[in-house]
Amino acid sequence: MNTPNAFHLLLKQVREEHGMTQVDAAKNLKIARQTYLDLEYGKTLPRLDILIAISALFNKSVAYFTGERPSLDSFDTMELLEELQHRHVKKAPNIADAMPHL
């Protein structure tokens, strides 16, 4: 994991994005409120089982919280889709051109 600071900032951000209070998050994770507060304030890092539970609760990969690879959250999904479609159309042959004329 990069640093406790990076983890706790991500944890707070995703909790707020999900409209949860700290108490809600602690209850969903089945941990004590103080344990959750310690995680979110950067006092401690989670055990592996808690990290997995956090990842599942907020629908994020463990790698997202550990900083191992960038998240695609900041990308515009429609922009990526348009780019992929553009690349596909560019490479795909026109089927009508490949058909023998009868």
Give the SSE layout.
Elements: H1 4-17, H2 22-29, H3 33-40, H4 48-57, H5 62-66, H6 77-91, H7 95-98
Briefly summarize what is shown.
The chain has 102 residues and is mainly α. Helix content is 63%, strand content 0%. The protein has a single domain (4-98), classed as 434 Repressor (Amino-terminal Domain) (Orthogonal Bundle).
Q: How would you describe the overall organization of this protein?
A:
- α2 (22-29) crosses α3.
- This protein has 102 residues and is an all-alpha fold.
- 63% of the residues lie in helices and 0% in strands.
- The longest helix is centred in the last third of the chain and has 15 residues, at 77-91.
- It has a single domain (4-98), classed as lambda repressor-like DNA-binding domains (434 Repressor (Amino-terminal Domain), Orthogonal Bundle).
- The protein is built from seven helices and no strands.
